[in-house]
Amino acid sequence: MTVAQEKRIRAPGEGAKRYARAFYEYLQEGADIPAVLQQVQALRQVILENDELRSILADPRLDVRRAPELVKALVEGLHLGDEMRRFVGVIARQGRLAALSEILEAVSLLDAHQRGEVRVEVATAQPLDDAQRERLRDCLREAGYNTIAMTERLDASLLGGMTVRVGSVLFDTSIVGRLARLQNAMKGAA
User: Which of 7-16, 67-76, 92-101 has the highest mean pLDDT?
Assistant: First the structure.
């Protein structure tokens, strides 16, 4: 598995989880949680799909004084509500915009956990057909995961097979993963 793949599939860190818990508790004081969570997903999707935006957010030279301009552009461009505007503003003032996508993912994971849902992220080299998708769901149910929210994405670098992340556990049956394990085994035998 490459470093780039690992970064895309790792679970949110403790810092991101702290921000997520604080935001989720704030939302429970009367916000329209489903609507805000849709906005969380929309913003995260924009960040994931936009390389330039990710670069800007991750740039350590991003001045804390300029960050509010970026936040305003994001909030207005995506028509985000007041809760999201304030939340992203706090993230910007704390100098944590580089972790915004991770924090948004932590918010989604926390909500799923609160609802008893297990989030499963599947990366494949080729799109899954309905039969493969159902077999995967059956395997997850047999493993004790009853309420499953599965997201799929294509990753041609896997060459074949798939990676499946259930919470913080990663199952890697990709060809790239198998080759990496074989290479490590051969290094150990030498």
Answer: 92-101
